[in-house]
Design a protein that fits this description.
Layout: H1 2-13, H2 18-47, H3 64-75, H4 79-87, H5 92-97, H6 100-104, H7 110-144, E1 149-152, E2 157-160, H8 166-191, H9 198-216, H10 247-273
Antiparallel strand pairs: 1-2
Amino acid sequence: MLTLVQIELYKIFKKWRTYIGFIAIAIIVVIIQTAISYEGSRTLNSATRGLQDSFVFVGNLLNGYFVSNIILNSLYVHIPFLITLVAGDLMAGEASAGTYRVLITRPVTRFSIVTAKFIAGVIYTAILIIWLAMLSLGLGTILFGSGELISLQSNAIVVFASNDVLWRFLLAYGFAIVSMSVVTVIAFFFSSLVENSIGPIITTMAIIIIFIIISHIDVSAFQTIKPYLFTNYMDGWKSFFNKPLDYSSMWDSLLVLGIHIFGLYGLTLFLFKRKDILT
């Protein structure tokens, strides 16, 4: 299995589309960091305007942690598209290249083929999120330094001590890997049904957009299905910047996301085992 995963990773990283996500994230992060370097004080003053009359803020509040938090909030909606560019081609790429029959004639099972591609897709997703972490958090602390983190929440502003921040970011990025893996497996599932990667990419993004719209519409008819929509849990990483931490909510989010991941993987495996490979 390890060899198959390595082969699938080689296939992924030899395609130029794989690097679109890395390049796009690098450009966006640098643009945001550059803009904040010029306008950051205005952003910070705007966020704390209601408290400046009662409190005196000291220290390096406009730091890499603050910038990284802003970037994480602004990119988690856009990263799914970059992921689908690769995940949508995992299975469909074999169909369009006509290599399905070659794969299944090798001394490997269909279970091994699907599982190796699934694992490779999740690994790619993890690498993309780690790349985001390295640029936003790593480069951010180099450029802006470190310090206390001001976390802007819907009804409060929470200030974390500098020694109480890094572990929160690490867990937040770890949660982001899980949530983005749902996007990966959705595109992977649709990729197994068609022979062109464009369909899985468009379908996956359409599902995400529709679910996000449903999640934010306050209509009683949608209340019964909202708890089952994965989009309600994709931004669960924000919980790591709450005080106190709501561990119950975190585990519930991970459970729902995990059910989506392994449920769709199992469905993909079930359908592929019964797939009639003609070409």
